Known about the structure:
heterodimer, A: 385 residues, alpha/beta, Rossmann fold, eight-stranded mixed β-sheet, five-stranded mixed β-sheet, 15 strands, globular, B: alpha/beta, 12 helices
Amino acid sequence: MPPKPVTLSGVHFMNGDEAVAEGAIAAGCTFFAAYPITPQSEIAERMARRLPQIGGMFIQMEDELAAMAAVVGAAWGGVKAMTATSGPGFSLMMENLGLAIMTETPCVLANVQRGAPSTGLPTLVGQGDMMQARWGSHGHYEIIALAPASPQEAFDLTVKAFALSERFRVPVLVMTDEVVGHMYERVEIPEEVPIAPRRKPQVPPEEFLPYKPDEDLVPPMACAGEGYRIHVTGLTHDERGYPAMDAEAHDRLVRRLVEKILRYREEYTFWEEVGLEDAEVAIVSYGISARVAHGAMELARKKGLKVGLLRLITCWPFPDEIVRKVAEKVAGLVVVEINLGQIAREVERVACGRAPVVGVYHAGGRIHTPEEVLSGIEEVLKDAG
Amino acid sequence: MPNVKVLAKRQEAQVRFTAGHSLCAGCAESMIVRTVLNSIEAPVVVASPTGCLEVSTSRYPTSAWNVPWIHSAFENAAATIAGVEAAYRALVRKGKIKKKIRFVVFGGDGGTYDIGLQALSGALERGHDFLYVVLNNEAYMNTGVQRSSATPRGASATTSPAGKAIPGKPQDRKNLTEIVAAHGVPYVAQASVSNLIDLANKVERAMSYQGPKLINVLSTCFLGWRTRRDSAVTMAKLAVDTCYWPLYEVVEGVYKVNYKPKEKLPIEEWLKPQGRFRHLFKSEEGKKLIAELQAAVDRHWEELLRKERCTQGE
């Protein structure tokens, strides 16, 4: 029997969790550290099988604190590294996520969201970690979060997540959910996936400053063993990497960490617009909820209601301009999400009174029905008079 | 010391852990939990971290717990019971509670050996008065048989799958019983679902001490071990008879081996019926690993006997 190819290509039938794992492998990930948690375990189990086949390393850690810390360590060891978890584990990863932000460590974290708070609904869907994705670690920072709505997109966005993490030297979150994670669909894997390079120092070791940014505010990254002196710390540091305990250095650093992301929105802001051309009402949604919203939009269209859909693929940084443009031309906005209003707050902030915002919420445990979303549409139309 | 009659009588008097839970038919955990609870006379408060026992006994709107029961997160049952016990002490000090109440944790190996070890160590060091019972089925069975640090070397689990690259889990299991003993707590023991009277005796002895106590109980999981559904007791007995899982206790630093098999069975006897070790019997490498497992069992058994001799002052 010929050996099985280590890199998959072609058409496959797989679930969203497996697609995340395959996306990571296609993107060049060779290190995965994780801890068992439902509904993420399929990612870890797939990685446990697949990484040894390609000479990569899978480590099951003793908890999620350790998993995220190992990812930071592995990235500084010079490889593309990833972890995946769900709600309770996401909470435990928060401190080390902040470490990755402060140390500008490229890495990817997938969160297969389930019902929460606390242990919540381990086997059932939720989208309640969206604000935690934004602000979960302490301090002020920017982070990139992508929300796939299908196994195919779970694959595609995991590949993108690795590219963006290298481009900006920032952890990138793949905010998937239990339904996308466990849903089996067609996933097409291209023959070749470009591997995002890590930006390397262009100066000799004696001139190298590990946190001196290039013009685009992102510093080149030398890893352990490459001949450059590096000093990695979560303390506020100067360009040499040494701790700098003063307000000016802190303000300079935190502003740069924020600005290096915000300046390049067009590079990572992804979205999909359906039927917005003539829409009087726009549904704003993401992840699995956007697929239900799509069904609701079709129901509404059949009833003669002019409804469109704005599906957010990038949730953080919030795509202010995209949402604002939609808010300017519709009579009302309907936000559909499996929490009691998280992304809706952002939509309200951006709409800023231009159009009323109605939330169609569910706390978790199931996805919406299109009919529920439809009643939200009818409500906003009534309000808009 | 409790015998079958005493245990049965207590079970009749108050059913502390009821039937109707959703643990797998053939799971060892309910036998262990019931034996432990029936071996304690005083009222008890129980804490459980996330795990098989927790999800199977507390699904709304039912509960198998006829005693006060608190579910913590995954990593913190020992810290949670520490809080409960400290609150109890405060209320006793203020004279608001008069009766003696005992505190018990039932945690799995994942929630104890791995993510819960820090909380456990903290509670042991602070000296809270509680009994921690480990339902050790040697992997994360609740989430689908992922390896834990209690999983034996060579076992195939979903995150240590046996294949060309690795022959099952490459690392040795952690010796939690000895880690706990090293904390210098008054009572530590290993027990097995195959020897329930021994377990009952250990619980009673443990409860005669103030302070932290731990009993590490081997709990067969037919699903994860890939054995017959009716093998909970026989598999655990083989673990004891091969000295893979010695029954012993450390009472105030003194070791006592509670059961010394007349004929120590070879480790294959325990490995062979388990699907998770099947691959070991199919290759030369696997057979070499079995020999190494045997050597490790022998070494630990001899070491245990030496510890017994030394600490008993012979």
